[in-house]
Amino acid sequence: MMTILIDGIAYGMLLFVMASGLAVTLGLMNFVNLAHGAFAMVGGYVTALAMNRLGLPFLLTLPLAFLVPALVGVVAERTLYARLYRRSHLDQVLFSISLVFMAMTGADWLLGSSQMLITLPEGLQGRFEVLGVGIGRYRLFLILVCAVLVVGLQLLLTRTRFGARLRAAVDNQRAARGLGINVDAIFATTFAVGSGLAGLGGALGIELMGLDPAFPLKIMVYVLIVVTIGGTASLTGPFLAALIIGTADVAGKYYVPELGAFLIYLLMIALLILRPQGLIAPAR
Predict the structure, then answer these.
(1) Percentage of the chain modeled with pLDDT above 70
(2) Please, what sign has the CA dihedral across residues 51, 57, 58, 61?
(3) Nearest to 213 by CA among 76, 71, 37
(4) Domain boundaries in the chain?
(5) What is the Rg, in whole angstroms, of the alpha carbon atoms belonging to the chain?
(6) Is pLDDT at 258 greater than 50 in this prediction?
(7) Over the stretch 150-166, which tens digit does the pLDDT of each residue have?
(8) Closest CA to 279 of 243, 250, 252
């Protein structure tokens, strides 16, 4: 039971890292970016190609898995997304979902449709026992890395001048510009961080989720569930939702594998009925 719980927590924290960018852009910037999974796929392919073709160690590829999608995110935000900030959510959804299919087609054309595989370092393979409980080394690594990212992101948004400027820019762009805040730079940086986190999550998730050109669609469903259940009032809601979904998914696959993903959707419906405003209600 404890092994399943630990595996579920690791999976849930990985989901939150990939969903955090969407939670920020949707919650703070009011922008629906369904192409978030495409940036996760980019990060995954950066790690896989760097390991398999360049021979880089797994840990050294993780900064690249953050930086490359972050740079792609900056370019996309300045050239594409910035034009849609004042458009309707339907326009944003249609535009971003089209980017997903373009990214999937491009990945299939350039790299093929087969699964990308990586070999983890020996120190992250296997399990060890603590008080009779088997703990996967890589799962524990995921929990520690994702916990640092979660705390760092929360502090960045709530305790720094950047976070305050971002909230001011979202609340009233005209007033923020009048106060000397570079709104364009704030939004570009926010997209870069969100895209980089998605890419890092995609790299970390190769071992658990696999990696192929369909990766963005598979991840998009879980990311949307996490953000929808958790709400966009803060990052706390999506974080709790990710832990619940991750644990329920792992437990469901272990105890009732014949139900598949049905258990996750059933849980989503129940939580939305009980808490339609999200797990963490917005402040009034």
Answers:
(1) 95
(2) negative
(3) 37
(4) 1-121+129-213
(5) 19
(6) yes
(7) 888 888 888 888 888 88
(8) 243
> Amino acid identity of 260?
G
Mean pLDDT calculated for residue range 256-281? 79
CA distances from 91 to 19, 60, 127 (A): 21, 38, 47
Residue with tokens 């792609």: 72
Per-residue 3-state assignment (H helix, E strand, C coil) for the chain: CHHHHHHHHHHHHHHHHHHHHHHHHHHCCCCCCCCHHHHHHHHHHHHHHHHHCCCCCHHHHHHHHHHHHHHHHHHHHHHCHHHHCCCCHHHHHHHHHHHHHHHHHHHHHHHCCCCCCCCCCHHHCCEEEECCEEEEHHHHHHHHHHHHHHHHHHHHHHCCHHHHHHHHHHHCHHHHHHCCCCHHHHHHHHHHHHHHHHHHHHHHCHHHHCCCCCHHHHHHHHHHHHHHHHCCCCCHHHHHHHHHHHHHHHHHHHHCHHHCCHHHHHHHHHHHHHCCCCCCCCCC
Residue-wise pLDDT for 74-114, tens only, equals 998 888 888 888 888 889 889 989 999 999 999 999 988 88
Check whether 131 has a pLDDT greater than 70: no
Token readout for 153 is 């992101």
Neighbours of 206 (CB within 10 A): 23
Mean pLDDT of the chain: 85
Predicted confidence at residue 284, as pLDDT, reads 45
